[in-house]
Amino acid sequence: MNNISYVSTRGSSDKLNFRDVVFEGLATDGGLYIPDKWPKLDIHKIDSFSSMSYQEIAYEIIKLYVDDSLSKDELKKIISESYCNFDHDDITPLIHSHDNQYFLELYHGPTYAFKDIAMQFISRLMGHYLENDNRNINILGATSGDTGAAAIEGFKNITSAKIFILHPHNKISEVQRKFMTTIESNSVHNIAIKGSFDDCQNIIKKIFSDTNYKISKNLTAINSINWARIMCQIVYYFYAMSRLPNNKNTLFSVPTGNFGDIFAGYVAKKMGLDIKMFNIATNENDILTRTLQTGIHALKNVKETSSPSIDIQISSNFERLLYDITKDSEYVNNLMHELKNKKVYNLDESILHKIRQSFVSNSVSETNVRTTISNLYNSYNLVVDPHTAVGYTSSIDLRETYNNIVTLSTAHPAKFKDTVVDIINNDNFVTKKIHDIINRDEKMTILENDVSSVQKFINTSV
Q: Exposed site from 4, 409, 416, 445, fewest CB < 10 Å?
């Protein structure tokens, strides 16, 4: 359907077509794959989205990135099947709360988090290719709470794939964990690592950097380092803008950890969507806020907060933004080398200026998260999870500047029921599904924070 190729941000890996990039995590040079050009939509096509369903918009966006390995009918079928088990007809409904404030609810999928929107599609897409090729794969991923559950839910019935998900032991919510560890499937392996999410992610990166091992074990990735994840998330920015009564001068405020969700919005803007600004909403793990303010990207220890999915210091997808802005793989490669060896890099002022044309960033304290959850409930009868509270609170000082503030509501509050109930003293928002999950038995393996332990586990399981 197009002639897009996928290139590594670090410049030393071969170009890939769509079919191949779907199964790739890190490129062999350690970089991330990104399209070699951005497809453009004209204003008439974008305007027509206001009368289309979410699924129809998804087809119009995703078809621009796939190739002839997938027919139009096959793509439409995969999209239809991917979103048939969401609990809202609009898939990602846009809710007006008050004044110029909107929430884009991304948690109506089977695991109550925005990750379902991509994972339901990717699992079916990979399953389609694997069935046609009569082959099997082993999927390896790390999660800060929600990616793993969405991936496991998507792949649990894909017989041609086994899935290994790493999560930081005792550093995600009970509900997040049980969405993963209570799934009955011989294809699913949950691994709790004695460390942080960044530790889990570093293990993944080290394993994928060993090309011989990756090939020998038929490993592929489903984290947001996988381009297909970003591709699927572009869709709901087009959907949201098509539903705003007046979509001029709009800011999206995005709770941000690994930078994939907000990068998808940036791509939508590159494709022609008239989004004025993106707010990188961080919690007390504020590396990206500090980067935009000072140009210094310096790693610190991860703090545990009530919004664990963004308790991150290494925002992998920020590398994609740096490459897109500079188009200089050598420069990006040098920055990533400095980050790995010195735990810090400095951005040139010219690059920082370009980033600030599309992004602002504000961090939010734990105290302010609690206050926001309480105020939204008491003032507007809205129950939000801590990540959504970070997104909402982070944009407070920007409200006079923009016609619309759209906060991405990335998780159902019931996924963080203990925190939310403690704040609002009400548990009516906790669904039967959550109560049922809490009472189920768990199955997971606890491992030390090292690559060899994970590799040994994979070796005995595949």
A: 445
